[in-house]
Amino acid sequence: MNFSVSVKNSLISEIDAMSNTPELFCNNPNKDFTRLRKISFKDMLMFPIVMEGGTLRHELYKYFDYDSKTLSNSAYCQQRNKIKVDTFKTLFHRFNNHYAPKPYKGKYQLMAADGCTFSFTRNPADTDAYYGPDGKSTKGFNQVHTVALYDLESERYVDAIIQPIRKKNEFRALSELIDAYAIRNTSPLTPIFLADRGFFAYNVFAHAIENNAYFLIRIKDQNMKRLTGCEVLTDLLDNDITRILSRSKNKKKHKHPESENSYRYICKAVRFDYLSPEDIYDEYIVNLRVLRFKITEDSYENIVTNLPRNEFSSEDIKQLYHRRWGIETSFCKLKHVIGTGNFHSKKREYITQEIWARLILYNFCSIITQHAAIKKCKRKYEYQVNFTVAFNACHYYIRQHTGEKPPNIESLIAQNILPIRPNRNYARQDRFQIPVSFTYRFS
Fold this sequence. Notes:
This protein has 443 residues and is of the alpha+beta class. The protein is 34% helix and 20% strand.
């Protein structure tokens, strides 16, 4: 059996298992999906995963082979309304459990965290996700913000939290993702969470430490100055520091007066889950390693971490942070190759379902692509898979559901490769992008 066939069978087996107990995933378990309909619960799970960018009518016809008895758009929306919002999240985790993560240095799991925003059809009634008219749009637009965990070695998504844009909170999202991973994780690997400067928060550090995990987070110069207590940052830095967090400014009540310079005040408005709200004089001690290194002639990066010095040198940490860019390229594939922005919904609940469905599709394609072998030859460069071609081939394969002969996915992937040119870099281009409505996809 080809590996691609086994991956598809793994996904189908989980969909079948969930289809055997649809009452667990329905809003009205005693009523929903109890009668025979034109579209089954199994098809309701599979269809959003394989949808492309066409109109809903066109996608339904393609899925049901242009059968004249294909259900109407309205009937499909009625069926979709019966499914709980977190159903596709459950399928995502069940499918992921079939494949163990790839280790880094034999005992770590590298997981990058970052956020990505998706625009969808304008709906002023959804106040949590709506932005009114401004310089970008004359009518306003709606957005959701997705904070995701991405396994850099296995090149697939591990978890995500989807927030309406008005309630975007990356600090809280990453803290919750770290806690959820600790509960769900069955791997012996120790996680290392890598994040950009938007995730710098003592609460994030504490959640990683309390869950026996490591973190590596980039921080701004002004945050580095506050953290270290230095008015001027030196060119190079690699120091261990201890900070005592407290919600009290009363120095007489501090438990460690000999380390007064190590205290940092956490006001009541700032969330910190490990200081008792009842005891204002409670304290939390955190041990950190702070680094500053040069990346170009006139620019520096600041890193805060708890990685052990005896295993990770400053150069190792520099390379680790560089690896974080993998989640940025994954978002590019998720949006433009997988087509996550091609929503077929108006309600935010359905948008959430479609995002989870696209994350499943991304992992399905990535698992197969990672397994494809590239023939070694004497060439100037090493080669990698052309992910656009590979993902399109995997997408075509997963759409097959009526007994068609599967294509040789592994051969297709191996035929389409690109050279790896190390140390290439391009200036980031700031593009002014106007949010648009996607109502044509609902017809």
